[in-house]
Amino acid sequence: MSEKKANLAILMTATMSVLLPFFSYAADTAAGGDNRDVVASIEIKFDTAGDNKDGDTQVRSRLVIDGQDYARLYCCNAGKHSKEDHWNDRTSNTRKMDLLKSISRQDIHRATMVFGSQANGNDKWIFTPTVTVNYKKGPSETFTFEMTTLDSHNSSEVRKEYPISK
User: Fold this and answer.
1) Residue 11: pLDDT above 60?
2) 12/110: higher pLDDT
3) What is the overall mean pLDDT for the chain?
4) Which of 32, 74, 81, 154 has the smallest number of Cβ neighbours within 10 A?
């Protein structure tokens, strides 16, 4: 190999070792890859206060960004006498939300949490919700909202909305 070709090969190798990480980072960013602080899971802890949640009342909580659901929790209404879904006064119950779309840390800080319920008949439920957001990279974040009363009558859905802020 001539000296010119050897020098050119060294120059190309050095250039690629500098540029390859840049191109990889750009490609990951465009694809929503791991270099972003992407949500791995979201959990909601419901601290039930002075009025319980009936076993046949459905929890209907959503994480909304720009008018669209990014995560959802519809659960916990197996039946009036369900021990697992009847949440007594002064108890804590934690459930994991279903992630519907990729969510970044920046997205979380402009999102709205919607806490809702739909009774099978009538149910007044008083609780304090705490949302924990776990990221693939970086520390998790926890947001505790004010004590919330959802009072569903005649099987109607009721909800309260809270913006998430740092």
Assistant:
1) no
2) 110
3) 85
4) 154
Kindly state the average pLDDT of the residues 103-121.
96
How far, in Å, CA of 155 to CA of 29, rounded? 45
The count of residues in the chain is 166
Q: Do residues 113 and 90 make contact, with C-beta atoms less than 8 angstroms apart?
A: no
- Give the pLDDT score at 78: 84
In whole angstroms, give the CA distance from residue 144 to residue 44: 10
Residue owning tokens 């601290």: 47
Residue reference for tokens 């776990």: 134
Q: Tokens standing for 120?
A: 């099978």
Q: Which of 156, 72, 150 is nearest to 121 (CA)?
A: 156
d(Cα 82, Cα 22) in Å, to the nearest integer? 55
Give the angle 19-25-26 at the CA atoms, nearest 5°.
90
- 69 with 3, same domain: the answer is no
Are the C-beta atoms of residues 123 and 53 closer than 8 Å to each other?
yes
Query: For residue 142, what pLDDT is reported?
Result: 97
Domain count, the chain: 2
